[in-house]
Design goal:
This protein has 152 residues and is of the alpha+beta class. The chain has 2 helices and 11 strands; from the N terminus they run ββββαβββββαββ. The longest helix is centred in the first third of the chain and has 13 residues.
Length: 152
């Protein structure tokens, strides 16, 4: 199972998001863990690679599993560790190979085009004082089939 980390960075009621070329959907910056990394090491490294920003004291906010199904058969599966952070340093890169980086008002996040599961992740993390866990099942065409989130 592939493991990925990402981080929701909040600065003055704005979030840094990544508009990915596929579907034109917005996502949380991050990426794949490397062999031997802790999830904290991974999120700090991945975030800096994609954004140029150095995270300071990222806090784990959610752990999620994702499965892509084809006729009820699992085709791909990964686990995602989502952090939240309010302190960072550095300068935002002008070019990101993963897509376009953009600061967005926190109130607008729900209106952006994104995977339905990602929308639920934002909502759940912003409405919880605890680590949120969940699982999401998608079709090969990235349509959400089913999900469970705890705590709701």
């Amino acid at each position: 199972m592939q493991q990925v980390t990402n981080c929701i960075v909040i600065d003055q009621n704005q979030l840094l998001v990544l508009k990915k070329p596929k579907h034109g959907w917005y996502a949380i910056p991050g990426g794949k863990m490397e062999f031997g990394e802790t999830i904290r090491e991974s999120v700090i490294r991945e975030y800096k690679e994609e954004t140029g920003l150095q995270l300071h004291d990222p806090r784990l906010a959610g752990v999620f599993t994702f499965t892509v199904l084809d006729e009820d058969e699992s085709k791909r599966e990964w686990m995602m560790y989502t952090f939240i952070c309010r302190k960072y340093s550095g300068k935002l890169v002008e070019f990101c190979r993963e897509g376009e980086l953009e600061w967005v008002d926190i109130k607008e996040i729900k209106n952006l085009p994104m995977a339905e599961g990602d929308r639920m992740i934002y909502q759940s993390i912003f409405n919880s004082d605890h680590i949120v866990t969940g699982t999401f099942n998608y079709t090969k065409a990235d349509e959400l089939i089913s999900y469970r989130i705890d705590p709701l």
